[in-house]
Amino acid sequence: MGLGRLYITSANRVFAGIEGSPKSAYRVIGVPYDSTTSFRPGTRFGPDAVRLAAAGLESNSAFIKDVFLEDLSPYDEGDVAVSIGDTNETISRVETVIRELSSSGLPVMIGGEHTVTLGALRAFAERNPCVVMFDAHLDLRNEYLGLKVGHATFMRRALEQVRVPKLIYVGARALSREELEFVRTRSNIAVFSPTDIMALGPVNVASSISSHLKDCEGFYLTVDMDAFDPAYAPGVGNPEPLGLTPYDGLYMVSRIVDERLLGVDVVEVSPHYDPGGGTAALAAKVLIEAMIKHYVSSKDSKQRRPS
Asked: Mind giving me the DSSP string for the chain?
């Protein structure tokens, strides 16, 4: 048993109700943590809500025919045993767990607040991961509400601790002057706002993202549900108007994911602000689309290899 197993506890239910195989290449893990949340708490209940919502969805992809989630047999490991109030310890535990899961499959993480993604990125530090981040915010502040490590600063810390050749934002539209000035000093950061997506269309934006990723050996996909407009995803910690539509977001996720995907997460689902359950359902669909596309791309890649 690896050290990561010491930090995993059982969850109330499994993702999509699928009793997957422990030998599956897709390893689901929840991180019920929201200690640095600054506006609407409750994302600690996100993993359970997303698992339940997934069970109510059909398991097919909206973009890939004849492949179903059960074909992948995803295995739900349970939840990281977080350390309430100790963000650094929780991040370290996430890092340990994700590193261990990545040795035998694709980690599929459900948050929790966005800070937990820092642990996942540190787990892949030796692989120099490019990052695609769907988010209304940049999360690049140096400090926020007295915190150096929190949901509004985690990507700044990630860039300090992990070599990230490319950081690509999708849906960003709420940023501080400090963050804007920081981005302007970095040639490896690209930002596609909802205005860009409306002007160019999701097909062209997805193609541009793929072009940015063409030299990346591997990349991590993180989806903060506030990237979507609150009309479609109201149950988040920091809702911001003028976000993505479900079609645009899901289409771009499906287009950009390929066999180089190192891991994926959805974060910031706050069920108490999600009266109809639409946010949790959309988060579950993001993971389903990402897993199915990775599965298909990985099979195609193996078939293309010379024998």
From this structure: --GGGGGEE--SS-GGG----TT-SEEEEEE---TT--SS--GGGHHHHHHHHHHTS-SB-SSSTT-BHHHH--EEEEEE---TT-HHHHHHHHHHHHHHHHTTSEEEEEESSGGGHHHHHHHTGGG--EEEEE-SB----S-BTTBSSSTTTHHHHHHHHS--S-EEEES--B--HHHHHHHHT-TTEEEE-HHHHHHH-HHHHHHHHHHHHTT-S-EEEEEEGGGB-TTT---BSS--SS-B-HHHHHHHHHHH--TTEEEEEEE-B-GGG-TTSHHHHHHHHHHHHHHHHHHHHHHHHHHHS--
